[in-house]
Inverse folding.
């Protein structure tokens, strides 16, 4: 099957399939004489595995490790569990950071009049935050 069919069946876009191939997450696709990529059902199954892992929040390095474990029938499930729990912890921390950002934005928006005047605590907060940041080594921020 061609890359479009593989993308459709796996839920992974053709662009991402090419990217996964480029970074070595998946093996290079077989090619036709004219250079088109071709995929077997097993390739689609691997892409489906990757798609599901990504939808659960696993970063690419963890997906790479999970793929290796999936293909290793003598794997220890404790390693899979460790990777899953590490990812859950990372996601939990990110959720807390996002919740803090939402609270900050809601607080700033609540204190913004939202009228025709130029005074805006949202802009002021961002501008003041820039002034508090240390200078970057090359003078850029």
């Amino acid at each position: 099957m061609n890359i479009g069919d593989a993308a459709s069946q796996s839920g992974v876009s053709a662009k991402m399939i090419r990217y996964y191939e480029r970074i070595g997450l998946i093996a290079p696709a077989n090619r036709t004489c004219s250079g088109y990529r071709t995929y077997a059902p097993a390739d689609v199954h691997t892409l489906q595995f990757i798609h599901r892992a990504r939808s659960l929040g696993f970063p690419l390095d963890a997906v790479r490790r999970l793929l290796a474990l999936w293909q290793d029938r003598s794997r220890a499930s404790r390693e899979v569990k460790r990777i899953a729990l590490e990812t859950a912890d990372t996601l939990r921390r990110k959720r807390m950071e996002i919740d803090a950002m939402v609270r900050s934005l809601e607080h700033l928006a609540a204190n913004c009049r939202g009228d025709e005047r130029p005074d805006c605590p949202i802009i002021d907060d961002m501008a003041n935050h820039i002034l508090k940041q240390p200078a970057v080594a090359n003078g850029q921020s």
About this structure: The chain has six helices and two strands. Residues 78-132 form one domain. The chain has a mean pLDDT of 93.
